[in-house]
Amino acid sequence: MARGSPRTRFDSVRLIRALSDLVTIDIAGSRQSFADRLGQWLDFADAIALFSALDTPADAAAQSTAAQPAFADEFARVRGALLDSINTDGLLTPGKARIRLPAPAWHASTEGAADYLPYHRYYLAHQRDMAAAIAPLRASVRAGLARQSPALRQLAALDGVLDQAFAPRERSLLASVPQLLGRRFEQLHQAHRSALPTAKGTDDPAQWLQPGAWLHTFCQDMRAVLLAELDLRLQPVTGLMDALNEVTTQQ
After folding, report:
1. Residue 3 domain-assigned?
2. pLDDT 10s per residue in the chain (251 long)?
3. 39 within domain boundaries
4. Which segments of 68-213 does DSSP mark as H helices, in order?
5. How many domains does the chain have?
């Protein structure tokens, strides 16, 4: 890493910690080695592609002398736009929201107003937004690495294989995040209902988004999980950029 160059650090378990702090998640320790677990995630075609990427000699061609691409600016632009989309929700935070946080919809019953579905859709919209922005960024960085040197070309090929192989599993795992948040939504709502006075007409959905109220707390929790997921999704790109920086500083 170049001296004085900022390096973004991500916590690989931040998303898991964020979720486990909100809901009870049973995470059984695996007795399998990493290689065994990796083998279960790769099918035969993936394994062949992975072998080909690893078997390509790193010194098969002369090292490129091309200048280091300005990936840092593009990374900062994409990350900044996604952060702004998460932090500026148009309801709890001011500003024009690309994806607006839903407010409790009017319903004939107070119980009916506590509907998680709009928030489920809101989270899915952010997931689609992150996937659409990060996939081309990762591909661009990967293509840039392939032009730099044989060693980085091999790394780019390896990343391409792993990206394709793990994409279905990643989508499946991340699809469970809004489902877990639904449990947090119900937990907070039930705690709110249990704390209400017994007199009728004391619960007002219009107050649920006030600071300290149950729905406001949930929205803050949901934002924290979204930020943790963004960090997780950006980790492969960060790893590629770190590898490029390490090589260029040694030249």
Report:
1. no
2. 343 344 444 444 678 878 877 876 554 554 555 445 545 544 445 444 444 545 555 554 444 444 355 788 999 999 999 999 999 999 999 889 999 999 987 675 677 788 999 999 999 999 999 999 999 999 999 988 888 888 888 888 888 888 888 888 889 889 999 999 999 999 999 999 999 886 555 788 989 999 999 999 999 999 999 999 999 999 999 989 888 887 666 55
3. no
4. 71-87, 110-113, 117-146, 150-195
5. 1
